[in-house]
Amino acid sequence: MLMPNAPLIEARGVTKIYQTKDGPVESLRSLDFSIRDGEFVSVVGPSGCGKSTLLKMVAGLLGVTAGSLTLAGQPIEGPQKDVGIVFQSAVLLAWRTVLDNILLQAEIRRMPKAEALAKAQKLIAMAGLEGFEGKYPWQLSGGMQQRASICRALLHDPSVLLMDEPFGALDALTREKMNLELQRIWLESKKTVLLITHSIPEAVFLSDRVIVMSERPSSIAAIYDIDLPRSRTLDMMGTPEFSVYAKKVRSHFYAQGSLDH
Amino acid sequence: MLRRLMLSPTLRPFLLIILLLVLWDLAIRIFSIPAYLIPRPEQVVGQLISEWSRLLNESWKTTQATLGGFALTILFGIPVAMVIAYSKLVESYVYPLLVFSQSIPKIAIAPLFVVWFGFGILPKIISAFLLGFFPVVVSTVMGFKSVEPDMLDLARSMGATRLQTFLKISLPHALPAIFSGLKVSITLAVVGAVVGEFVGSNSGIGYVLQVANGNFDLPLMFAALVVLSSIGVILFLAIDVVERLMIPWHASQRQLF
Fold first, then answer.
1. HEC states along chain B?
2. What CATH number is associated with residue B210?
3. ipTM score of the complex?
4. In chain A, N or C terminus with fewer CB closer than 10 Å?
5. Chain B interface with A: residues with Cβ < 8 Å
6. pLDDT grade, residue B256 (50/70/90)?
7. Closest Cα partner for A109 from B245, B43, B164?
């Protein structure tokens, strides 16, 4: 059993080395961090710094080369039961309706049907997708597609939600709206969230803590606690406190001269 | 009402055919082309009517050979393509050989099938199979290989077994590509069956073509070609219908929603 206040996700000296044709390439170098249950943590860093690699390792889709990575005290080996993933594109199956796409999670995990359906309908209501259950992915906007994929990631009620630049492909206005939605969903569901993002305002706006990565081979440059009250509003993005946090995070990239967007 | 009928998409090819027939007839009259070079449309239609039962009978035999070859195409082509798509090793061995074999003119080796398999339906089926096989393999391989890596990661993250990933993700994803291969394949299978009938057969539309050619019976030859093309069109449309039923979600079918 998990001890109270013990970290839910813990990384100790996590290193990833890829074997390529040109020899080994070090992607991540000795990462140490821990994420508490119910915490919202973002990872920001330059392109190609291995953020997605980190997320895939936490999901158990990639192995670590060295170090230890644990979920609820257990080493992560292979795909995890207690994890839901949202990718940059919604990755919805074109031949399934929104509801059936969400239920894919239940089918593959062999969850009881009636229970899964009830859960799916609850999630659909929470994500504001009522009336779109029977639509096909191409009939939805990008934001709605991503909402459906969040519902799918939450269907089996995982304690951890992993998000790999989920709003990167959306326009700026939709993105802000989705940030608000995600905050609401997080406040309602009390999941632990690990969000990979390129956007400094998004990271500061949503997170309890922001992990800043350096360029390849990446290590953790800094971790900032974002001490802003919940629930946060878009107006808060204009406050001096918010700017201070954003500036702190941004300073890392200017120092490296690698802010690429 | 008449205007709408004229503009309906189903009728458009027929309107074009009528136009081409008129041009054909006019060309013969204007340039006074003798009948032993190109028959007049009404002669062809006349043969179609008078030889109707014979043509129908022979076309049924050609259709059987075509469908037999096409069935073999599905039975072998799709599994072979799946193995190629899933295994780099098999791909490196088999794919170049497939392309190599595809460059061999089937008409050149068709007589060999007669030697090996006799004068029955079998050499025709094999000829139809060999012609239709390649496009199905190529497009099926493409279909299976084009599954997004994120989609496979998604399945893995859910703890999907290989079978689940295949049935719920890879196969439905590959279906549109498979069908586009099947559509090309069925028309080629008709050609393959006729090639088989050309070299060693005493039945089928290919045989009728041979006989008509030998007798300089150009109207009959053209009539046989019309029947042959119709077989191709009907089989193609049949696959189109199956495709619509099986992948109504695909971009190419979306006007139906």
1. CHHHHHHCCCCHHHHHHHHHHHHHHHHHHHCCCCCCCCCCHHHHHHHHHHCHHHHHHHHHHHHHHHHHHHHHHHHHHHHHHHHHHHCHHHHHHHHHHHHHHHCCCHHHHHHHHHHHHCCCCHHHHHHHHHHHHHHHHHHHHHHHHCCCHHHHHHHHHCCCCHHHHHHHHHHHHHHHHHHHHHHHHHHHHHHHHHHHHHHCCCCCHHHHHHHHHHCCCHHHHHHHHHHHHHHHHHHHHHHHHHHHHHCCCCHHHHHHC
2. 1.10.3720.10
3. 0.85
4. N
5. 148, 150-151, 153-160, 164, 168-169, 172-173, 247, 249-251, 254, 257
6. very low
7. B164
Q: Is A95–B247 a contact, with Cβ atoms under 8 angstroms apart? A: yes
Confidence class for position A215, pLDDT limits 50, 70, 90: confident
Residues B45 and B91 in one domain: yes
Q: Do B150 and A79 touch (CB under 8 A)?
A: no
Contact B159 A95 (CB under 8 A): no
Q: Is the pLDDT at A1 greater than 90, yes or no?
A: no
Q: What is the domain count for chain B?
A: 2
C-beta atoms of B164 and A108 within 8 A: yes
- Let me know whether B109 and B232 are in one domain: yes
B56 with B156, same domain: the answer is yes
| Chain A contacts to B (CB-CB under 8 A) | 56, 59-61, 79-81, 83-85, 87-89, 91, 93-96, 104-105, 107-109, 136, 138-139
Residues B71 and B196 occupy one common structural domain: yes
Assigned domain for A148 exists: no
Mutation choice for B interface testing from A55, A76, A95 by most B CBs within 10 A: A95
Measured in angstroms, the CA of A12 and the nearest CA of chain B are apart by 23
Sheet with strand A66-71: strands edge to edge: A23-36, A7-20, A66-71, A74-75
Q: What is the mean pLDDT of residues B180-207?
A: 91
pLDDT, residue A4, reads 55
More confident residue, B141 or B249: B141
Domain that holds residue B16: 1-33
Same domain for B49 and B5, yes or no, is no
In a domain, A147, yes or no: no
